[in-house]
Write a structure and sequence with these properties.
4 copies of one chain form a homotetramer.
Chain A lengths: L7 H20 L9 E5 L4 E5 L13 E5 L15 H10 L5 E5 L2 H9 L5 E5 L16 E7 L5 H11 L6 E4 L3 E6 L2 H24 L2
Parallel strand pairs in A: 6-7
Antiparallel strand pairs in A: 1-2, 1-4, 2-3, 4-8, 5-6, 7-8
Helix pairs in contact in A: 2-4, 3-5
Chain lengths: 210, 210, 210, 210
């Protein structure tokens, strides 16, 4: 019997955090039709991530698998999502990223289509911008990049990598959804909440200003 | 005592699945004012279906009855919905359809009215289109037919039948609601979720683009 | 010790029905800021009704009182809502009305203001119109009256009375909310659900058609 | 061992009230991304208030601390929110204010931005205006002030103080959220509910009137 290349207790702890958060996000409508995936760092070579194609509203611990930072399955016959590489590229490059959340809410999808032409959504003069790590005033503008959608994930990953030279807590993919991250689950959830809220504000303001 | 023409254990299993799904869909607001009906295939001649006119938010197993594929009640004095034929025509023609969900959400109703003139709603460039069985890229367009409403169900069924020569996972009826289906409950639910999400996207984009 | 002029067991049964329905409607956001009131017929002289000014989200049986059909409290020191007369006038005139639900949802308020000039909201070509008792086709138009708001309830009651010569299951008061009713709680709830759904459809269609 | 300068039993009672209300408001989406804070008066020198930066959806009694009316922590090493002064200035000036609720709902944020130019939002001809203490008819207009946002809280507090010469139950801060208050928790919650409902009405009417 070979030893696992990761700490099984840590996997159990992280998998539980992912299951709880996923069910909460499913209940909020962020994961329509088995979409979306969620991960947490295990160590400097492995991450725990949701298995592809499961109903996120009734996820359990068996629906979490381990991958290495090239997105390959580790010690499992389960298949990871095609988008696993978009999670692991973040863990690989930034040691202080501990959690990545990819969701498909209605307003993320709408904003990604509406602002695809501009290439970004700008948040300006919102108190809630202080929810992002490192922001301590509302008097700044913050741009969320919008990338074109692409079924070839390595291409998408390369485009994301080019954005990561500047501080960033998330990006949109056109007609697809949002990636958001943070140091741990609480941090990533707070960033996801703030993105969802501010994207919704931007969409609603467009309906209100005539 | 005559034997039942269907498997009672299978009926119990399917009825439980229908009850659970119906309560979830009712909680989402998909079944206003006792509307909507839900069915699952039992075998190559029978289906289990919700009894007409019940509050879908507190359905129980007694509210599920058996019909044959001509929409006639089997071994029961309960009355099926007038629209039963729109369920059974699918089971009769396609052996691999196992579940049919008919809902009346707000956005299904709105989209059915708004796009009745065009005769269809087009989904284009959405990642979520991959939720439909057989789609593996967002780079396709998918049309959802919109039929005129009609109190004469055989006429409506004939119009639906003419659409089924091409692959299809659902259609709208004007001012009425959506029919969606799949191989089993999970499949049909995923399709229903995806229709609801994408119809809502199309409606919201029309409010946002001025 | 004098006997009560109504059946205490029946009061208990009706009060329980009112409490359950009220909490459900509160959870749906139909009773903002302690507004709204709900009643059921006890016999040909008495009705049970919610006490004024309570938070509808945590109502209990003690928050239900008895009034006669002139709106006066019976065998209690509790104070009924000023609008009690709008409930009892329906029980007094129509022996087959068993339940009256008065709610203040956002869309009821919006529709009442938007259509106050027209004096009614018209529902046309909706399948859900069949939820109203007596309707068996979508091919009819149905008008919901909108009355001007008035703090003098007897005046409002007289205006309502003039509308009741024609079959009616509900009306709006401008900037205020909806009255809906039926033979029993299930009937009144189905009518309320249908009004809410169809009013929301009418509002959303106005946002969608440009 | 020194005695606490406040009544510990009263703190326990008020903290419980705050925890329950906060969780309810979090579930309604009023506290995105750890924002918002809530307080109750303890006596004529102290108030209980939520600790800064906690997730309001899973608050517990340990997340409530005591401050004096200059906003300074009392008998604790916990850090209060920077906005504590906007709570305590109300307790200091008005002995009959017992509860202050500061929330960041989507519609509060949208209304604060849309009406920042006008400097106020006007409520007119709404029955629900009677939810505010002292209003007994819908036939009045009520203005909710909108202040510019400012990271320097003493400046903001001074601007609020200038508004308090007239009867007031709440105000908005641009791009930020709402402050609402009352004699006790029930009173403050009813006012908050009414503000949220009426602000949403005003926003929706702008979408409906073309």
């Amino acid at each position: 019997m070979t030893a696992l290349p990761y700490d099984a207790d840590r996997l159990h702890a992280r998998a539980t955090e992912i299951v709880v958060a996923t069910r909460e996000l499913a209940a909020l409508g962020f994961t329509p039709a088995t979409s979306s995936n969620f991960s947490m760092r295990l160590d400097d070579r492995h991450a725990a991530i949701t298995v592809s194609g499961r109903d996120k509203g009734c996820l359990c611990e068996d629906d979490i698998m381990v991958v290495d930072f090239d997105g390959q399955p580790v010690a499992t016959s389960q298949r990871p999502s095609a988008e696993t590489l978009l999670h692991t590229q973040l863990y690989k490059r930034f040691p202080d990223i501990g959690c990545v959340l990819h969701t498909h809410s209605l307003n993320q999808t709408l904003a990604s289509r509406l602002f695809a032409g501009a290439g970004h959504v700008r948040f300006e003069d919102y108190e809630l911008i202080k929810a992002f790590r490192g922001q301590d005033t509302h008097e700044v503008a913050m741009d969320v990049p919008v990338l074109p959608n692409n079924q070839h994930i390595p291409t998408l990953a390369a485009q994301v990598d080019a954005l990561l030279d500047n501080p960033l807590w998330g990006y949109l993919i056109e007609g697809h959804g949002l990636y958001a991250w943070g140091a741990d689950m609480a941090d990533a959830r707070r960033h996801l909440d703030a993105f969802e809220f501010l994207l919704t504000c931007e969409l609603e303001m467009r309906k209100l200003i005539r």
